[in-house]
Amino acid sequence: PVEKKTNTMVCLPSFLHGGTSSLVSTLTTFPIYKIVFRQQLHSTVVSQAIGQLRKEGFLKLYRGVVPPLLMKTLNGTLLFGIHDTFLHCLSITNPCGVIPLSALPAVAGLGTGMVEALVFTPFERVQNVLQNGGNDRSLPTLRSVLARLRAERLGSGYYRAFIPILARNSLGSCIYFGLKDPVSAALREKGLPPMASSFLSGMVISSMAINLPLYPLSVLVVNMQAGVMGEAAGVRGSWKALWEGQLKRSVPLLYRGGFLVILRSCISWGITTALYDRHSAH
C-alpha cells in the first residue's frame, strides 16, 4: 500500500503542471483562436477578422473564452498526467529492456493519445457541429445539439470521425513526447537557457513534426463531424469526397487556413512545454 501510494503521488504533479501550463497558453493564444474562428464562420480573410474584433473592442476580445479554456486545461491535465503515469508504469514493467529506454516516452505518448481520443472526440464533435453555420436553424442551441447526438448511434453521433482522431492524436502525442526532451537537450547544448530551449522545442515539434504533416487529418475530421444528417460515409469515402470534390485534388486548398492554426499551435505548445518543463524541474 505504501509503494502504491508513492507511485500515485509521483504522477500527481504532472496532472497539475500540465493543467496550469495549458491554461496559461490558452489565455495567451485565445485572440488567435478567435481570429481563426471568425475566418471559419464568415469565410473572411485575416485582415477582415482582425478588423471585426478591433471594432468590437478589447472588452469583448475574451468573450467566449470559458469553454475552450476549460477544454484545453482538462486536455493538458490529462495529456501530461496520463503520459507520466504510463511512463512510470512502463519503466517498472520493462526491466529486461524489451523497449529501449529512449523509446519509452514515445510509447507512453502513443497510449496517451489513444486515451485522449476516447475522452475528447465527443467534445470535438459538439464543437464542430456548433461552428457549422448550416446547423444554425435546425440546431440553434447547445442543448439541441446534445439531444440530437444522443439520439444517434455512437459511431454517427458523438464518436463520428473517431478513427482519424485516434490516428492524429496517437501519432501527435507519440511524436511530441518522443522528441520533446531530445530536441530541448540539443538546444541547451547550443547554449540556450532551459526555458528558451523548451519553448523552441515545443514550437519546432508542434509545427514541423506534428501539425504540418497531420493537418490533413484535422481537415478530414472537421468535414466529417460538422454535419448531422444521415450516416457517416466512412473514413475512405469521406476523404475521397473531400479530396475530389471540395479540394479538387489541390494541396494548397487542403492547407487553406492552416497557417494561423499552425501558428497558434506553435505558440501554444511552446508556452505549454516551457512552463511544464520549468515546473517539473522544481
UniProtKB/TrEMBL annotation:
Solcar repeats lie at residues 9-89, 100-186. GO terms for molecular function: NAD transmembrane transporter activity. Keywords: Membrane, Mitochondrion, Mitochondrion inner membrane, Repeat, Transmembrane, Transmembrane helix, Transport. Its main location: mitochondrion. GO terms for cellular component: mitochondrial inner membrane. It holds the Pfam family Mito_carr. It is a multi-pass membrane protein. The keyword Mitochondrion applies. The chain crosses the membrane at residues 158-179, 199-222. It is found in: Mitochondrion inner membrane. InterPro entries: MCP_dom_sf, MCP_transmembrane, Mito_NAD+_Carrier. Belongs to the mitochondrial carrier (TC 2.A.29) family. This is Solute carrier family 25 member 53.
